[in-house]
Design a protein that fits this description.
Blueprint lengths: L3 H12 L20 H20 E6 L2 E6 L2 H34 L9 H28 L6 H29 L17 H30 L9 H29 L5 H27 L37 E2 L1
Parallel strand pairs: 2-3
Antiparallel strand pairs: 1-2
Length: 334
């Protein structure tokens, strides 16, 4: 038996013991409540993922992963393909008309030479032939769902040739039409080789004026849907803007030529305006070439990816930046 006095001393010693090393219990921390903005961002991301799944499909071509778009972006490309095919054919026909006019103005077969008209026709033939080839290269680049980077490189080079040839053609044509010199037929001048060629030029000019205007609308759509977004290189954006302005200038040029050719009276003012608008379009073609080459248009893509190399109309699609670092695990959107 422990005496009561001793037991009391033991209890007192226990209650006064040092408790400096004792740890206090930690309070549980609850996660922050989910904010409404986070829920909205998540819902938006889910919608974007669903749209991508609905609007694209993936294939493997020659060991390369290609993501094909079937949504609004691809539909706009199909529209561009249609206008490019129409313009390729019309430009080739205009080249034939320019050659016909050159035969009657460049002194062949003893016919007296007419310097301004001859220069305008030779330059016009070269400009429209290279323009047709440029649109054919664009067909090879845009119309397939895959990719053709070589055609994308050829397109601005052919556009440059068309622009340089057009400068000679439209400068000579402006010197003739703006001075009211009726000394030879051209595709814009109201003077015709004969009535049949005049009517043919009227139809071709009107068609191309309308087709270039439709093409300009597609390019405006591309600018409104990310062709100059923050992730797009500045050179590619500049090339798209130059291409859009070229389409507007070309439309004005051919519509002016249509007014000149489709009226019975000899109206030199529309032909003068057509050549001036053509000169503007030619300068924009040169700017388009410079901007396209400043980007990655003619750089060979890496071995494991396909990259869209054209500078026009990559609407509603995610831009591919730094594509040289992509592998088979990183599909390329086309």
């Amino acid at each position: 038996m422990i005496p009561l006095a001793r037991l009391g001393l033991l209890l007192l010693a226990v209650t006064t013991a040092d408790t400096s090393n004792a740890t206090e219990p930690e309070l549980a921390k609850l996660p922050a409540p989910v904010r409404l903005t986070s829920l909205l961002d998540t819902a938006k991301k889910i919608r974007e993922i669903k749209k991508k799944l609905d609007d694209e499909f993936t294939t493997v071509v020659d060991g390369k992963i290609v993501v094909h778009h079937i949504g609004p972006g691809r539909q706009a490309e199909i529209a561009q393909c249609v206008f490019s095919s129409l313009l390729a054919a019309e430009q080739l026909a205009s080249a034939g008309m320019a050659i016909t006019a050159a035969v009657s103005t460049c002194g062949f077969g003893g016919i007296p030479a007419k310097a301004e008209a001859c220069a305008a026709n030779i330059g016009g033939a070269l400009a429209t032939i290279s323009g047709s080839a440029s649109f054919m290269a664009e067909l090879a680049m845009v119309c397939p769902s895959g990719d053709n980077w070589r055609a994308g490189c050829a397109n601005p080079i052919l556009t440059l040739i068309s622009g340089l040839s057009g400068l000679a053609a439209h400068a000579s044509g402006a010197g003739q039409a703006c001075s009211n010199i009726p000394n030879g037929a051209t595709i814009f001048n109201p003077v015709n080789v004969d009535d049949e060629t005049g009517m043919t030029n009227c139809i071709l000019n009107a068609n191309q004026g309308a087709f270039f205007l439709g093409r300009a609308g597609i390019q405006v759509d591309s600018l409104a849907n990310g062709a100059c977004g923050r992730d797009v290189p500045a050179a590619s954006c500049a090339a798209t803007v130059a291409g859009c302005l070229t389409s507007f200038a070309s439309s004005a040029s051919f519509l002016g030529g249509a007014v000149s050719k489709c009226t019975k009276a000899r109206l030199f003012s529309p032909a003068c305006a057509a050549n001036i608008a053509g000169l503007t379009g030619d300068l924009l073609k040169i700017a388009n070439f410079a901007s396209a080459l400043a980007g990655d248009t003619c750089k060979r893509p890496s071995d494991n990816v396909w990259v869209r190399s054209g500078v026009s109309n990559r609407r509603l699609e995610e831009p591919v930046a730094n594509s040289t670092n992509l592998t088979l695990r990183d599909p390329v959107h086309v």
